[in-house]
Amino acid sequence: MTSVTSAPEGFLWGAATAGHQIEGNNVNTGHWVNEYSPGTQIPEPSGDACDSYHRYPEDIALLAGAGLTAYRFSLEWARIEPEEGVVSRAQLAHYRRMIDTCRSHGVEPIVTLHHFTFPRWWDRDGGWYSPRATARFERYTEIASTILDDVDWVITMNEPNMMINQSEARIDTENGVNFPGPSPHVARATAAAHRASMEVLRRHGKNAGWTVANQVFQAVPGWEDQRDEWQYWREDFFLEQARDDDFIGVQSYLRTIIGPTDDDLGYGPQPWPDTAERTLTGWEYYPEALGHALRHTRRVSGDIPMIVTENGIATADDPRRIHYTTGALKALADAIADGIDVRGYLHWSLLDNYEWGSYRPTFGLIAVDRETFARSPKPSLGWLGDLARRNVFPADGEHAPEFAGARAGTA
Ligand code: FCB
């Protein structure tokens, strides 16, 4: 028999995107420069992306039509402040129209001020190493705040713990995106900018916070101390910074097992077993990750409200997406039953988008034709929208259709 669990009243059900991954022609960013520089290591450039810069009304209408109630999207700093100190009122008006479009569909806008991409001038002038980094981010927050009147939920920065390693990340479609070691100096710089941005947003009466990539670090038995060591600058430092925030965004896809390695350090991530099912990013299929991520976040960040600001799977097999999301939502329902204060679930992603180097990993609830930009909702969009309309979490595998490709030893 199938059972369901009610979600808390007012629970936000939605999907997430990020400007650079969907808008197209985000030419004034350091990312665009890297994508198009001769000899780049980036396999594929972003180009027109999903042309959502022009097609956002259709995207928001599809999200709302399916029954979802929240849309997380990001502003592009490089458009709003194209040169240092130069404010584009036209671009601010563009993002204001996106907020209005959400409101006209009864959709709660959740706005990310910064999702990985920087204006060219920021990169040119020291980036996070500039002594002016905090002041610049603070000023950008002030500028952005002028269009956020009726927006309640604002994210200062997406995944600072991933962002600070991004330029050095290696994209490997077999083994996923590989991030090198973190820099404590840069981590502290992001924390200072976050605090300054938080102050501005609070003065404007917003619920504000940042999002953290939760990697669910697990230890090979006996390697717990090394796991804790590995985890601190990659995750826990960033969770600690959120202790006094209004909420924290929990982003979860996978787990990372720490144990012995042959390199100089002697410990690090273990390869996934050959039998593990892999997704199109090369990550292990592990929907339970979300429950662990929520519990770990509470342990480190304390008892502050949480929103799942990203969770999803790169797959060409939409029933498998539903299966993964069923497992994740079940883990989420268990966490809520245990007293964790989760206010919403935003699926990554609304659209098949540009995944930082490649269009191959398809995370979307909606497919996008790469030539015509035509949108085709997948069954998973209707499925998630239906849960939203009923405000229930699936339990006992509700709506988790049989999947022909399932392999033993997974999930
Ligand atoms: C997260 C990013 C998001 C997307 C997903 C798959 O780390 O925030 O932009 O790429 O991973």
Q: How is this structure best described in words?
A:
- Helices cover about 35% and strands about 20% of the residues.
- With about 400 residues, it is of the alpha/beta class.
- It has a single domain, classed as Glycosidases (TIM Barrel).
- The strands form five sheets. A nine-stranded parallel β-sheet has the order 8-5-4-3-2-15-14-11-9. It has a three-stranded mixed β-sheet with strand order 10-12-13, with helices on one face.
- The longest helix has 20 residues, at about 185-205.
- The radius of gyration is 20 Å and the shape is globular.
- The relative contact order is 0.15.
- Mean pLDDT is about 90; it is low at about 400-410.
- It binds beta-D-fucopyranose.
- Beta-D-fucopyranose binds near residues 21, 213, 310 and 348.
- Beta-D-fucopyranose binds next to loops.
Sequence of strands across the biggest β-sheet: 8-5-4-3-2-15-14-11-9
Q: What is the quaternary state of this protein?
A: single chain
Annotated CATH architecture? Alpha-Beta Barrel
Whole-angstrom Rg: 20 Å
Q: Structural class per helix/strand content?
A: alpha/beta
Describe the sheet with the most strands.
Answer: 9 strands, parallel
**Small-molecule components bound:** beta-D-fucopyranose
- According to CATH, what is the class? Alpha Beta
* Count of separate structural domains: 1
Instruction: Give the percentage of residues in beta strands.
Output: 15-25%
Q: How many beta-strand runs?
A: 18
So, the CATH homologous superfamily? Glycosidases
Q: Distance between the terminal alpha carbons, to the nearest Å?
A: 21 Å
Low-confidence spans = 399-411
Overall pLDDT metric: 92
Q: How many DSSP helices?
A: 13
